[in-house]
Amino acid sequence: MDKNRVLVFDTTLRDGEQSPGASLGVPDKVAIAHQLARLNVDIIEAGFPVSSAAQFEATQLIASEVKGPVIAALARCVDLDIDKAGEAIKKAEKPRIHTFVATSKIHLEKKFRKTEDEVLAMAVAGVKRAKKYCHDIEFSPEDSARTGKEFLFRIVEAAIRAGATTINIPDTVGYSNPEEFGGLINEILNTVPNVDQAILSIHCHNDLGLAVANTLAGIRNGAQQIEVTINGIGERAGNASLEEVVMSLKTRQNFYNKYTNINTKEIINTSRMVSNLMGIPVQPNKAIVGSNAFAHESGIHQDAMIKHASTYEIMTPTEIGLDSSKIVLGRHSGRHGLKQRLVELGYNLSTVELNHVYERFLQIADKKKEVFDEDLIALVGDESQDFEDAYQLEYFHVLSGNKAIPTATIVLEHKGELIQEASVGDGPVDAAYKAIDKIVNMPLKLAEYSLRGVTGGKEAMGEVVVRITQNGQKILGRGASTDVIEASIRAYLNAINKSLHLQTGKDQKDDVKATL
Ligand code: KIV
Ligand code: ZN
User: Fold this and answer.
1) CA distance 28 to 23
2) pTM of the model
3) I need a surface site. Which of 37, 96, 151, 295 has the fewest CB within 10 A?
């Protein structure tokens, strides 16, 4: 490999999916994996197959469908994990098993009650077992940044001798800092005798807000692979953000003298898809992909920008795929135009899904005149799914005011019948949800509700994301409309329909969250 090239290992679908509140259905994961392939990442970590039936299914589907990147599956250094991972990635064009075991003193003593020698034996046995399934094996000593160096070097050397082709050094709890982490990478490269027989990778968490800085320091010190996630999502405070590291390397090529093969023009599409499907909004001031990242507020800045954009812009919005002409479609756009634009945005919908989205698109286009990419993405989140809704909104009416008791009437279509209920509530949304509860009669709890404007302006669509809990399981629902009450009702119904679908067993969700 060219010594200036940095491989991008995307773990959005594995570590990213361990974000609090995040959980994706199998079709959503496959859609994201296809988009990651368009982004041209080198490796996609598709899941942790042993952790649930859904993780296994998603990894298997991604392995058989997604071409281009290496498809990796995570496994502890445990036989069952490795066998499941091996089975799940069997059909991949380029399969990889990523196996790991914790190595820090604190994990050995408190988590495992094992000696260093016992853990080293687990690592060697794990790598050797994985090797039966594929040649490409990654090994991670978990909590490397807090592991004693002597043992870390020893286990890295042993894993390479056992057949690991990539060694990944994780700062699992985001404890390190750039000087220290860069120094560790430098020391590994200069101390472990057989290190040149493997690719050295890094994996940084963001607990102290240093994940990107630590990753860049690792690259400066010779790491050849980075493990990152879209929008920096991940366990606790997240992982190093793919877009931030990649754009740092690109924008400051003169300093780092390194490059990735990422197609940066797909960054914004990927960021929006992940945010939308996971129901995790991107903060406005987030570097690279936040809505303010290329906005200039102060008069002095605006004036200088008109004179020359480079005065206040170190990279251009087009580099990450943001077009200045963002209006895409209007009410005269046909189904074909809509389909085409959705494909460009990374969404390959079935005919049934496209029909649903088109119907809603026409309603929105009538109200809004101009439909933006963000509007389309919100509509897809609301409408696209591979099953028919058990309950559909037919009609709603709400009464609200500062001196009125909020009241809602809802009519839903269910199995060909129209069912009507009314309720009062603390507000119009609460009243509507209570009326729906009376109709569906399920033991639901609304755990989260959030509303955001999809684009700016008076005609902006509102997007509502809810999470309901049923039997201890959290289910995400999304709804979008120019009317925020309608968006709220659609989001609630979306979650209810998904929950009913899950109960029928046609779709499987994670029954066990990966416990690493
Ligand atoms: O943070 C971590 O240590 C991990 C490992 C599984 C690589 O995610
Ligand atoms: Zn991690």
Assistant:
1) 10
2) 0.88
3) 295
